[in-house]
Amino acid sequence: MEELDVLVIGRASTLMSTIRTRLPETLKTEVLDPSHLRSELKNKQPKVILLLHDEGDIERVALIQSEQLHAPVIFIHESHDFQLFRDLVRRGVTDYLVMPEDLEGLGDRVETIVSRASAEQPKEQLFKRGNGKVFSFYSGKGGSGKTFLSTAFAQTLKFESTAQVIYIDLNLQYGGGETFLGIEPNRTIMDLEPVVEELSEHHLKNVSEKEPFSKLDLLISPRDAELAERLTEDFVTKVLRACRRTYDFIIVDLPSSIDERTYGALIEADKVFYTIALDTPSIRVLKHVESLFQKLGIPTEDRLELVLNEVGKENELSKKDLERFVTYPQAAQIRRDLKGVQTGINKGQPIRKEPKEKKMIPAAKDMRKWVRSMLK
Ligand SMILES: Nc1ncnc2c1ncn2[C@@H]1O[C@H](COP(=O)(O)OP(=O)(O)OP(=O)(O)O)[C@@H](O)[C@H]1O
Ligand SMILES: [Mg+2]
Q1: Partner of 182 at 20 to 30 A CA spacing, among 27, 89, 155, 203?
Q2: CATH of the domain at 223
Q3: Which of the listed residues 136, 137, 141, 147 should we mutate to test ligand 1's pocket, taking the one with most ligand atoms within 8 A of CB?
Q4: What is the pLDDT of residues 340-355, one digit of tens each?
């Protein structure tokens, strides 16, 4: 097995030559012609893979993923192809760079990934780095529990695993996540704006707040509509991609209204957890959302999963009733827990404070069940 810093997969071309001139000379770099991919890939152990666009990108990514579990893959193309980008990211590609516009930052990016990979002990690596999963919590219906469930999910994930987790609040006008976690933020996601073109792990760690009990990292929203307007879909996409390189799980809390930022986070998501109550209005809203997603080209198949919230005896509909109207997989169900949830909020305290809680409120237990089943 040959150890390498960078493996560039692509045919000889002008693009290939340009890319090679941008890679730091200190890095051990090799070029592999795609026709030798099948036979040669298993003999190489690179820290990062640069894959140049060619025919059969998806199949090649699948092959790389099956042979090279640890190396992040950066895909390089000469044009913007949204559909392809989406498919590649869902296959586990870390980054999609468009040449020549992204050429400037290429060398630095590769260097950062390589130096991080060198510093890490592969044996202690429990999760695939550089390949973090984005889970966006969404619902067309306000007040359906997106913020409560996404904060609780992120916090529980942190308590129940060694994964690196970040919670991102994209309710840019009103915020919300910090109140469920009892945080008084000093910094917000806006602080990333000046450095968005060169986002590093360092920037993310500096700007994020920490939830003191679980040590969950948080990117808090500015709660300022005017400021928020400045942020674009491109900003959201760049932040999420940078987070993929640093974290194992990126939990995004979204508002019900779909603007360009919400759209960016929905497109980038590996999974969309749709929070829904067991009643007719909620199903009606979901139907609207479905047709809107279709119009906007936001895929739901294999991505959208339902999280039944406020489940209890007083629900208008049963799970069976819901299944007659909606066939999405059900990721979890969380009980209606007025006492437990409300007491926490009133005290400004999160629902979990330690890994092995003695007295856990019912909603926290349901959340733990979901998170544990997902981690298996
Ligand atoms: N399982 C539950 N049991 C009891 N109360 C709940 C539960 N889930 C959510 N709530 C309560 O419902 C209210 C709305 O929840 P939350 O703010 O999370 O919804 P949201 O979808 O984020 O709302 P918005 O659309 O305004 O962002 C909160 O007061 C929360 O405490
Ligand atoms: Mg909310």
Answers
A1: 203
A2: 3.40.50.300
A3: 147
A4: 998 888 888 899 998 8
